[in-house]
Amino acid sequence: MYEIFLKVVDLVHALGYIGIFIMTLIESTFIPIPAEITLIPAGYLVQSGQMNFLLVLLVSTAGTVAGSLINYYIAYFYGRKLLLKYGNYFFIDEKKLQTIEFFFQRHGAISTFSGRLLPGLKHFISFPAGLAKMDLFKFCLYTAMGGGIWSGLLIALGYYIGRNEDLIHQNLLLINVVVVGSVLCLALVYYLRNRGGRK
Prior knowledge:
This protein has seven helices and no strands. It is mainly α. Helix 3 crosses helix 6 (136-161), helix 4 packs across helix 6 (136-161) and helix 6 (136-161) runs antiparallel to helix 7. The mean pLDDT is 79.
């Protein structure tokens, strides 16, 4: 496995910052390529002085936003038509579609931000945002915030323990647990504040 890691490091180094942008763009669409494949080796290259941390973070965040925009615009222009036509296969009708749109119109910012941090959801959170025609500036802002935090964590992980596969797996699991826990706490605070505001 160590040899595989070194090959990925060599690939990331060869592709450079443009390669990181392309890989994170693809990862942020509906193609479920984990960002860990690119950003942990990039963090190791930062540690060895072959890449710059800030540039890797900026490029990977830009890639995340660009890939998310692809999903956003697919849903923006075609999502409603497709769901109304084929939604019955996924138990989605007009009423449920309106509920999704209404929810994202009210809670799109927190949903986009937290969705970019949650495993299994980050690849798809842009679809309901586009479906609800969420404000584009807000969508890009909160996608960049969530994506930037996740990218930063992976780059830092590669920076500090990039060669040790066992430590990578252990700490990646820990990061996911901490991130999910933090998002749940954020969601609870958001819910309590908004519930209080409606009284």
